[in-house]
């Protein structure tokens, strides 16, 4: 069963916090402040009467409305924990066919209500929150459109319902010997339609590409009709319609069918963890690896603070103690940085890539290749479990959030340092520490993404906690914009990032995006306030 007020399901094996980890957090942030939590029953009692008309496809049950009222941003988290939601959708629909989506859109126009497309509810940027409008709001959950519709093995193109979550995408393809290879941190719950709508990036994008490389076409239901996007290997016939839909965040229409480029299941795949004596060696190794086109499936370079924090929070205390002893013996100690990488492909590809990366790691003074696959297996087993730590830390009285960007290689260090400095100092006037750490999560010949996590103590109240988060988010976002970074490399824009989008797109670019959305949704009934400020 999926949790109503936190991340995930009750069937997933979850990480735990050791006493050593608790002590580490207390030493850095002070004693946690544990806030009282509302129950589902208490929240359901606050849901007002629906303003939507009766319709066989619309569910007005209060629990359904509560469970679809928020995503997973920190303000969403606080709303769910405190029970102060402010707004709920007036109903939830669960269409099973494109025709039913169109029927609901026609009803929205006739009865004057707005629609919020909903995939897996994993948004961390405020994509799916009901806006403050006088009009009723219908959340359109696509979870029943969750199957593999067809698979063209000759062209290696698969067609899915938009509400298919990551595990079901992979399971259905695996039966025929294929994979999509798109593994975002939210893989357990996020959906293929949501990946397209928010321009998602998976952990193994070095091999498989981001969602824009994987998205081949499909169908978009709009208020001006159905937009069919044919699958073609490539085209020079004007602007790419696929690119118009990618990242549109439900403002142009509702995806009713998603076609993606798939690959045969790899013959061999392994993940490794190695360590460098300092950030500069690790940085140069990863940049060289990607610019030399070594065929890895993923790279992830943690800075010294993240490396230290990960080792403290990891559990596996006996293994970590043995690892630390080994690293000290190899003169890799204070300031060490951890690199996680994957090798995926045929056996011949695997051997070639392994030989190249081993040589490169050695050249840049990295150690651990001989034991790296053992730690890599631990990483692989828990690769989608990190979001559950947010609940563990919340129960101890601490809040956790993340933010990310991407910049050219020449600006990585300055941008990373500016983001971390902004976060560490944002609550200094209140005497509150913020624990900040970063890794480079996705790599390109031109540059890299920067993914920063920050922990801070909950406030005395929920209101104070959100106010502190806003100070932190604003300070870091301003640092990103000031250094020429994108406001989002993989989380999308939603409502939280919309105020910063114009810094990247410019006045004319923003006008073009607005015009495009208006062309497909002239009355502004689709997800108003997301992507473009209302």
UniProtKB/TrEMBL annotation:
<dbReference type="InterPro" id="IPR006094">
    <property type="entry name" value="Oxid_FAD_bind_N"/>
</dbReference>
<dbReference type="InterPro" id="IPR036318">
    <property type="entry name" value="FAD-bd_PCMH-like_sf"/>
</dbReference>
<dbReference type="Pfam" id="PF01565">
    <property type="entry name" value="FAD_binding_4"/>
</dbReference>
<comment type="similarity">
    <text>Belongs to the FAD-binding oxidoreductase/transferase type 4 family.</text>
</comment>
<dbReference type="InterPro" id="IPR025650">
    <property type="entry name" value="Alkyl-DHAP_Synthase"/>
</dbReference>
<dbReference type="Pfam" id="PF02913">
    <property type="entry name" value="FAD-oxidase_C"/>
</dbReference>
<protein>
    <submittedName>
        <fullName>FAD-binding oxidoreductase</fullName>
    </submittedName>
</protein>
<keyword id="KW-0285">Flavoprotein</keyword>
<dbReference type="InterPro" id="IPR016164">
    <property type="entry name" value="FAD-linked_Oxase-like_C"/>
</dbReference>
<dbReference type="InterPro" id="IPR016167">
    <property type="entry name" value="FAD-bd_PCMH_sub1"/>
</dbReference>
<keyword id="KW-0274">FAD</keyword>
<dbReference type="InterPro" id="IPR004113">
    <property type="entry name" value="FAD-bd_oxidored_4_C"/>
</dbReference>
<dbReference type="InterPro" id="IPR016169">
    <property type="entry name" value="FAD-bd_PCMH_sub2"/>
</dbReference>
<dbReference type="InterPro" id="IPR016166">
    <property type="entry name" value="FAD-bd_PCMH"/>
</dbReference>
<feature type="domain" description="FAD-binding PCMH-type">
    <location>
        <begin position="85"/>
        <end position="265"/>
    </location>
</feature>
């Amino acid at each position: 069963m999926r949790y109503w007020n936190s991340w995930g399901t009750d069937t997933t094996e979850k990480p735990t916090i050791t006493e050593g980890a608790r002590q580490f957090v207390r030493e850095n942030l002070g004693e946690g402040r544990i806030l009282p939590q509302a129950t589902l029953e208490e929240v359901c009692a606050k849901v007002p009467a629906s303003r939507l008309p009766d319709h066989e496809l619309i569910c007005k049950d209060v629990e359904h409305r509560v469970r679809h009222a928020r995503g997973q941003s920190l303000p969403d988290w606080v709303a769910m924990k405190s029970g102060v939601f402010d707004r709920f959708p007036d109903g939830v629909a669960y269409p099973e066919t494109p025709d039913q989506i169109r029927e609901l859109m026609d009803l929205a126009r006739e009865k004057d209500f707005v629609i919020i497309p909903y995939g897996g509810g994993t948004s961390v940027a405020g994509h799916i929150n009901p806006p403050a409008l006088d009009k009723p709001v219908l959340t359109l959950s696509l979870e029943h459109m969750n199957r593999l519709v067809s698979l063209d093995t000759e062209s290696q193109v698969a067609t899915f319902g938009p509400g298919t979550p990551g595990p079901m995408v992979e399971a259905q393809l695996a039966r025929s010997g294929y994979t999509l290879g798109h593994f975002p941190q939210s893989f357990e719950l996020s959906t293929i339609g949501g990946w397209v709508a928010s321009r998602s990036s998976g952990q193994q994008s070095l091999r498989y590409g981001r969602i824009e490389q994987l998205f081949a076409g499909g169908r978009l239901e709009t208020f001006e009709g159905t937009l069919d996007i044919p699958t073609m290997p490539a085209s020079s016939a004007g602007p790419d319609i696929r690119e118009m839909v990618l990242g549109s965040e439900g403002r142009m229409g509702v995806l009713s069918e998603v076609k993606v480029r798939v690959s045969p299941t790899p013959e061999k795949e392994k993940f490794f963890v190695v360590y460098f004596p300092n950030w500069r060696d690790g940085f140069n190794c990863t940049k060289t690896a990607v610019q030399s086109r070594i065929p890895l499936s993923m790279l992830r370079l943690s800075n010294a603070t993240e490396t230290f924090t990960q080792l403290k929070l990891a559990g596996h205390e006996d293994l970590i103690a043995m690892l630390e002893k080994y690293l000290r013996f190899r003169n890799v100690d204070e300031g060490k940085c951890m690199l996680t990488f994957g090798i995926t492909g045929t056996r011949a590809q695997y051997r070639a890539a392994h030989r190249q990366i081993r040589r490169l790691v050695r050249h840049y003074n990295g150690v651990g290749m001989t034991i790296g696959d053992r730690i890599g297996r631990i990483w692989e087993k828990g690769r989608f479990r990190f979001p559950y730590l947010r609940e563990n830390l919340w129960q101890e009285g601490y809040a956790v959030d993340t933010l990310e960007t991407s910049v050219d290689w020449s600006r990585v260090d300055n941008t990373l340092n500016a983001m971390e400095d902004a976060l560490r100092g944002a609550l200094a006037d209140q005497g509150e520490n913020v624990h900040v750490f970063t890794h480079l999560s996705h790599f390109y010949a031109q540059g890299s993404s920067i993914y920063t996590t920050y922990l801070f103590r909950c406030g005395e109240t929920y209101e104070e906690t959100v106010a502190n988060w806003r100070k932190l988010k604003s300070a870091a976002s301003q640092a990103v914009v000031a250094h020429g970074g994108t406001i989002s490399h993989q989380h999308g824009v939603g409502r939280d990032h919309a105020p910063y989008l114009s810094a990247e797109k410019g006045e004319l670019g923003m006008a073009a995006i607005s015009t495009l959305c208006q062309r497909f949704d002239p009355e502004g009934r689709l997800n108003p306030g997301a992507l473009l400020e209302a």
